[in-house]
Amino acid sequence: MALSGALLFWPKALKKHVRPIYLQYPEALYDKVFHYHAAGHGHFGRCIDLRCGRANATMRLGRRFKEVVGIDPEWKRFHLYWDNKMAQESRSGRVRFLNLGDLSAFEDETADMITAAQAAHAFSYPDVWSEIGRVLRPGGTAAFWSYPTLLLPDSNQYKSLNHKLLDFILGPTPERLGMYWDPNARRLLWSHYTELPRPPEEIFDISTFQLHHYHGNHFPSPWAPTPIHSEPVLQTMHGVDLAEWEQWLRMSEAGRKMRRANATQQHLRRRDAIGTFMEGLGLEVAAIKSQREVSLQMPLNLLLVRKRTGGRKQDQPTYAPSEGAVEEVQSTVGKATEERGEAATTTS
User: Fold this and answer.
1) Positive or negative CA dihedral for 75, 78, 81, 83?
2) Residues whose CB falls within 8 Å of the CB of residue 11, separated by 6 or more in sequence, listed in order
3) Would you call 87 helix, strand, or coil by DSSP?
4) CB count in 10 Å sphere of residue 197
5) Domain map of the chain by residue range?
6) What is the fold of 21-148+192-233+298-343?
7) What does pTM read for this prediction?
8) Where is this region: Disordered (predicted)?
9) First CA to last CA across the chain, in angstroms?
């Protein structure tokens, strides 16, 4: 939904219909994950997507694996945000979802790959590594990827605006989002996973460990000074409306916490901190481009590692999803399609 105009802010009735940016991870990222997996274990049978959220990554994984299981403790809430395309894709029966917060329901050595998109900084370590190692088949892949935030293009033209953006996102004062970050999640995410606890070598083949940073020249920066070897950015999104970007900031964990802390300003979006900041940023962008649509980049981190080989179970289960799993997905799709419109009109 692209909305244009002289201002970022509309009457309350229209605000309800402004959706956040619809993010898709770049195909180049999946190509790197699949290439890494194919060079090792190589079987594209079952993949489990941890903390799958709105299932963007889960659905894409379903095009390559015979079976994908997305798990999330808040799945019943997230599935309301499906669009028609996602609902249609899920009817293939290759993808199913469980309202779970961990891997305890899965048997040993029953997954070829376990993924986490924008979630690994919220896990409990080292427990999660042990559980991943238990459920992965020997030689299977663990793949985590994340992005710290969205930024304007990596160029001198936008350098000062990106600095202001990071100051707003990370600054530790009440009128900035930095005050509302979970401290541990912030440390792990903004260290670009360099401080993420490493997988135990008694379970994983450490010689296969890789950590990539597709940040271009965005980082290191004064706000995120961790030294990294950065590779080119994989994705630039064009034609993003500033209103959608503003809503994306509001829907972030820190944005929701800020909103709850300032509940009296909920009906005065133009005057709250996010609205005030984005209005000023929009004016500066318009001074550069003479329009209120922007291009945004997603600096990505990618962590890959394989489970040690040996001790492979000979009697491996088949990959066809059960009849009950297909019925579960179809039931979820029906509810998502019916409830999606209602969710859109109640999201502020």
Assistant:
1) negative
2) none
3) helix
4) 13
5) 21-148+192-233+298-343, 149-188+236-297
6) Rossmann fold (3.40.50)
7) 0.80
8) 309-348
9) 15
